[in-house]
Fold each of these.
Amino acid sequence: MKITFPHIGDAHIVGSLFFNEIGIQVVSPPLNTVSGLEKGSSIAPDEICLPFKLMISNFISAYEMGADTAVMPATIGPCRLGEYGELFKSILDKHGYNFNWIIIDTPTAIGKKELLKRLNLLISERNCKMADVFIALNKTYKVIKRFESLEKRVRILSGYERSRGECKKILKECRSRLRNSKDLNDALILIKEYHHKLSKVIIDKNKKPIRILLVGEIYSMIEPFANHRIEEMLMDRGVSFEKPVTLGWWINNNITNPFYLFLFARKKNKYMPYSIGGYAKETIEEGMNSKKNKFDGVIQILPVGCMPEIVSKSVLNQISREEQIKVMTVIFDEMGGEAGYITRIEAFIDMLGFAKRGEKRGNECIA
Amino acid sequence: MYCIGIDVGSVSTDFVVMDEDYKIVHQIYLKTKGNPIEAIKEGMTQLRRRFYKEQIKAVGTTGSGRSLAAAIVGADIVKNEITTHGVAASTLNPKVRTILEIGGQDSKIILLRDGVISDFAMNTVCAAGTGSFLDRQAERLGLKVDELGQYALKGKNPVRIAGRCAVFAESDIIHKQQLGCKIEDIIAGMSEALVRNYLSNVAKGKELEETVFFQGGVASNEGIVSAFEKELGCKVIVPEYHKVMGAFGAAILAKDLIERENKKTSFVGFEAGNYNVITESFECSDCSNHCEVVLLKSGSRQIGAFSDRCGKYQIEKINDSNDSLES
């Protein structure tokens, strides 16, 4: 059995480490590219959102590389992404890519028994015990958490570093070494080493960088290809930013912490009392609190065709007026040209800089 | 001492030479014609007849071809169009609170409060409200794009044309033509449709306050100006240098940067007009990113590289203000 799963951020790194740990062979498709996207668009429904087209292209590449079992995490919900697993199966079957499908869903949606049954399929050929799987899962979760905390520190510190680009370099190096790490234990040691390296970067505490909050649709937030590497763009411009929606955040809220969804559904806010699917409610709540959390501006990431984020876009406009916080929505599509994105993001940073430093002509040019 | 601003846009490439008192002493407006490198070289050659390299204190570039221009001429600052347009307008008139800007490829609205950009928006998906739409329609009606304004002013009973989408607008125009409507009324209707589309699309939810500036190539069209005045119910000022405001802003920002940091310009000189600049593009397959790298060469010497994510094709970074753009 050779399994595969679609790309989302660094999931392929930790995913491969996990499956290797329990002795399952993984086929990791090549990273998302424009030509891959073309392949995906050719068999995906035209009106579907960008994440779907990218993920389906990953499955095709993996199939061509010899994968026979597809694992797709899903969260059944009003957003289409929750149903994507089933849709992938139907479209790929039609086009002759015959995978065995293991669709992993939340225990609240399919029940604990069913989840265990599906997980069992994974290890049916191997003689490893369920207990070993859980130990490996736990370790994987640790790797994700520790790496994300490194990423989080880099995002914040890149506004304060004395020589521009140092933090970004450390993160990039760590990621590429992580790809080559032997096993999960090795990965944990490596991440620790880079946490230490990051602490040694010279920080200028007197700097007052622009602070931006990234909100938006989960896949486009995590997968750098889908957001045209907006994070690197911000790091290069000396912006200190935060991104609450990550892989670890999703795992925590949907799998490890059973109370989160229950509590979240009961949390009311004046703009959106109910969940309308996807991460619209989260986006709005983060936007509402951004002023309190001392952010200068909010960037919303919206892939074309994402229904929940279209709703939150209009709510964010209202929040922007009422709470006096700058919000910009960047819409991402198949279009490859980056000039438009750079122009908008750069102008947004300039504008926040003018307001923050109270200068006439953006004397601290960040370009 | 003078400062040069270059705005490489989709339709036009503009050059501005500005003196120490922020006064424009010379301006050039060239058609890009899909070949920005030639347009930049042509501009440099024309400037060479009037200025020396030693007179130039700073150079700034803007527009969608800004990094290309920066690599060819050696710019001190590379800035986006929104910031440069805002800076240029507030330098001309500190009371400006709203800037309407319609270029060839995109349209923007910039709001200024106390001379500082406080909000902006750009057209999102469709180009129905931009200069290229007008270009196309003028061509279809057998007119020059500069004549559209005159015709629109003559139209007494503008016809209703759908402005949401360029394709629908065109079929509406054809339909009205077949009905026998006067060409003046059709063009007047088209101008109104473009303005309506702009206000409901780009300027949606924004508070447009006086003083209103109208910049960009489309501002030469009197028909559009009067349609804007009718819709907004206030005076719309078209600044004298409306076509080259982006380049003007780039020159101002370059001057400020050089003065603040007390640096020497990285301008390579007007000989740039004689360079034999060639581009080489290929898909790099050294890693899984598969970047579509573009190398810019003058003779055998590489002067710039674009779209390489890892930065391995970059020559030494020209200066700090440029490096971020090349990433």
Note: The CA atoms of residues 172 and 178 of chain B lie 10 Å apart.
Amino acid sequence: MGIEGIGARVARKEDRRFITGAGRYVDDMVVPGMKHAAFVRSPHAHAEIKKIDVKKAKAMPGVIDVLLGKELKTDGIGNLICGWMIHSKDGTPMKMGAWSPLAVDRVRYVGDAVAIVVAETKSQARDAAEAVEITYKELKSVTEAVDALKKGAPQIHPEADGNLIYDWEIGDAKATDAAIAKAAHVTKMHIVNNRLVPNAMEPRAALGHYDKAEDHYTCWTTSQNPHVARLVMSAFYNVAPENKLRVIAPDVGGGFGSKIYIYPEEIVCLWASKKTGVPVKWVADRTESFLTDAHGRDHVTEVQMAFDKDNKITALKVDTIANFGAYMSLFSSAVPTYLYATLLSGQYVIPAIHANVRAVYTNTAPVDAYRGAGRPEATYLLERTVETAARELGVSPADLRRKNFITTFPYQTPVIMCYDAGDYAASLDAAMKAADYAGFAKRKAAAAKKGKLRGIGMSNYIEACGIAPSAAVGSLGAGVGLWESAEVRVNGVGTIEVLTGSHSHGQGHETTFAQLVADRFGVPIDSVSIVHGDTDKVQMGMGTYGSRSGAVGMSAIVKALDKVEKKAKKIAAHLMEADEGDIVIENGVAKVAGTDKNVPWFQVALAAYTAHNLPAGMEPGLKEGAFYDPSNFTFPAGCYICEVEVDPETGVTEIVQFVAADDFGNIINPMIVEGQVHGGIAQGVGQALLEGASYDGASGQLVTASYMDYAMPRADDLPSFQVSTSNTPCPSNPLGIKGCGEAGAIGSPPAVMNAITDAIGNNDLTMPATPQKVWAAVRAAKKH
Amino acid sequence: MYSLNYHRASSVADAVKLQKKGEDAKFVSGGMTLIPAMKSRLAAPSDLVDLAHIAEMKGIKVSGKTVTIGGGTTHAEVATDAKLKAVCPALSYLASHIGDPHVRHKGTIGGSIANNDPAADYPAAMLALGATIITNKREIAADKFFTGLFETALKDGEIVTGVSFTAPAQAAYEKFRNPASRYAIVGVFVAKGKDGVRVAVTGAGDEGVFRAKGMEAALTKSFVPASLDGLAIPASGLMSDMHASAEYRSSLITVMAKRAVAKASA
Amino acid sequence: MAGLAVSTTINGDSVEYLCQPDETLLDVLRDRLGLTGAKEGCGTGDCGACSIILDGRLVCSCLVLGAEAEGRRVETIEGMADGDVLHPLQQKFIEHAALQCGICTPGFLIAAKDLLARNPDPTEEEIRFGLAGNLCRCTGYDKIVRAVQDAASVMRAA
């Protein structure tokens, strides 16, 4: 592998700028003449806009203009869209309500944008935003999806009768019901997956700049996928044609899904820049982030899992209601369908599965993919249910799982997915060994002596990454293809630029992608630069989400490297008068195998550009591009074990041990992979113990709209993590990579909840398991 | 933040003068509550009079068992002062668990007491220690000082310049923190002095910090955790919010009080 | 408005600036002085992304007024390295990959520097407690703790 090649723990190249404070994020950008924007937002969950008076606001000091939705419509700016078509089981297409970037006649959640104020300073823009006078007629609102489906619930969009966006199903209902009817045991659960706020530490921001002389727009934005942003803003929102719109996502401070989507603010800032003739910058404050970033999760599910007399799972029946919030965000429709129900087989052989999913509008922030997106919801219900079943059946949770593991591959599940490789028992064994599972009883007894309740829980997750192939997702309703592009440019002196459509916002692409090149040609990674995040530099790409940059993004780079290598070998062979087949490139040198003949890499590159001595007919230059469209999803899987101590007097849960054993396929940089797992676990533990977005049912106000009320995991809330990997290479991509970005957030919540419910002897507990809830559950358990 | 005028006071007298001049001038000590309120536009004073540079309001004096702490002393200074730690480690501990390091380096004891946030830590200590709150005009017993949610006996133009108390023989503070804000959901300060035991509870009362007289009587009889068995503050007078119901707070008060007694006795 | 004239010391250099009384020190650093290493993650003092050291004390610059810096010493991330020579904490953050997106990193480094100045040999628990005023959404803190431990031992040996 070499010290900088595939598999090496290479220090991250990008870190020097971050640790010196020299990172360049959107809020750090300054453009000459730049002015500042503030949005006027709805204080109501649901209301008609009767009148907007901007006179006072326009007269405020420093105000350049105040712009409204009506003007936006007049200028032909389009509504926001959801890009994945789902059909209900009756064949009708999903019912998408209109989402205007600035609300015109109705607001549908607290935070809905109504107007933009552009002023000389941030402070002046905010002062003027407060001075915009809007007369609202308040309407009844609803925040819970279950309530929104009830008769008499307020109608949120005229397009979606009864607030139902779609009523979708997958699997075989008849076979599932039949298996449940004749089961030896059925475990039934009511599962709530709590609503989360992604909370990337960098708030969203946009800087729109219309250059009149060039008739050209530039948008700096906090995006995980600038090319998709450009495509959507051009094709659907009519901001500008693609050739006149440059989207730049520079350093981006975390995304976790929330920065995939194209939000109203970047559209409006671009449009406002043209209207006002000045560059317009907007940066969300944290409250705006809480109110308007797409939230995650928020499912309510009834589940039944059937077993035969040998404790083999025979069927799984799932009925889910998914809260979509006030508008359908870009990927929202795919989350509780193809990213969720298709994973309901978990790691288990389940002959019959049926899932029904109803997607519902409510007067809350839009809900979309958040780290894991659908897969955490599937894993949570499965792993809570399997654990519960083990308790009901009186068998060990590990044995019950092992008995039902899929062991032969490829394995076709009843819900579309065909798993290509895995060894679930290996991960289970590794995790149990690392956790000293066998020694738990002793530790529990020792804890009891201190007055603590000790519990252990596990979770065996599977997920699907690198969503693809494009033709397949297209047939399932996706509006885009899910390939990736790459271009490898070797310069005349042998240094290399790799242009990628993936976008790094913490994943370390500048390092891992460079390791691929170092591995291939034996050049130092310092001579390799990764270029990304700018639509003027990289032609096209699909961005980074769904743990796809390794499996898809790097595979595209491999394809381009193959082409470069091939041409370089031809040149080297020509220079050394050798056979192309005898050339090997390693340690920065092209050699003729078995001889001492060689040319340094830079001379091969130079030869390509001087073109003085190339093989007959060869074009000058050494630059190749590739598009990679995967042939299948990848299927990372693993086993997480959590051990907790609960203080029965206060309900406080302390995680005393957390073990993760993952199968990510081949790994490029183990240090970076560990970090991804750590971060994912932290978010999963956050979901299980601390985090929950909460709306006041009566007013529709978000009551957890700051860090004073929304509990984020802090350094002293978390333990150290014991992580390891045992890998089965992925057969569908050239690197054998599966992806690791979301696993931690997918696998950890059920492990934590299984541990707590084990400790307290009460299974009736919802996330987040706050001290108050655990305390109440402990007391309830005592009463029984 | 709305526009305002900023003044740095050089002395207490200077501060009073500056505050009088402003239309709606406010004193700011560390600003850890006021500045966020101003940024979120919930407070809009015309003028800020900064007390952070008044030398006479700074520092900790310990003379025998008598402790005097200047109002402008930061939480971090209270937490780490060796002389204080020697006579009243409970207060050092309390200060070391306020908010986070950033808050502790800027927030001051005077500011916290004057603000009287119902979930702040210091008010519990002041009450349990039977402290005297010293202002530029008078001295006020802690029992008379904290009058309600964010309400104190302070009058316009009055500044908490310091506090003083006699270090108790035994004392401890136990806090059950809000997982998000790290303010107290329940904080119990127990102090055993020559006149008996005082127990003060913050974070829980629907009228702010209060003394648990029943617990005080029981602990004065016998200063052991078991004295509190079966003793609870009724939920009816306690706060209820999304983080903790009144019933939960009631239970936590007894648990925290017992732990404080155990810690004070250790 | 003319604004207030403030004389201060930033990373050892005398600096004078004009600011409005309602401007935070964070805004002054970022918008007036071009020192964008400190970030605004929340604006309410809860996330620590804007951490600076003021007169030797760790504070959130989003809760300090620009005017308050008069006559004081301000240290920011931009002054942490000695020219091209990284501070041991910076070096260890790189070696341990103790950062991902980087937005919270300057704040963590400043907070860790302050922590080690007060406690050169902290336990893991003390590190976690001491860094609890800084939020990181990427790393789960594990590698940050490791990096601080490692830097502490290097600094003690120096």
Note: Residues 88-157 of chain C form a domain with the DNA polymerase; domain 1 fold (CATH 1.10.150.120).
